[in-house]
Design goal:
Number of helices: 7
Helix content: over 70%
Number of strands: 0
Strand content: under 5%
Oligomer: single chain
Largest sheet: none
Length: 166
Amino acid sequence: MEAKIGKFFDDIGSFFGGGDQIPWCDRDIIVGCEREVADAGDSDERKSECIMRLSWALVHSRQPEDVQRGIAMLEASLANNSSSPLQQREKLYLLGVGYYRSGAYSRSRQLVDQCLEIAPDWRQALTLKKTIEDKIAKDGVIGIGITATAVGLIAGGIAAALARKK
């Protein structure tokens, strides 16, 4: 019984706290990745790998400006269009993470769907898609709750005003 009660409170905490399984990245990792990009030299392949690591770190950051930087880097990289399908899949996934972190859930879902067209069974993308859909559903439930509360307060206010008139 205690286990069920504990799980109930964990589920409620997860509902209101976000509870996604996407990792976060600290500022010191981003700085290290920036240093790697600067030290990459003339090798295009090495520089590309370093930029992908930096993009990963940026879209997983807790700082919105870092996430936006990561999105911009990945979009510019995708526009280049010289990627293999595997690299394109990775970039689409990371863009999906970035847009999820910035709250653009519908754009994030579109990108994950594109990613899944390339690799339909890719577990990371499937997990992100479920996380996005859960977040959209949760936001809808919270929005309905706020609306119902507002309507209830207004109706209660009108009822109280009418009761005072009589």
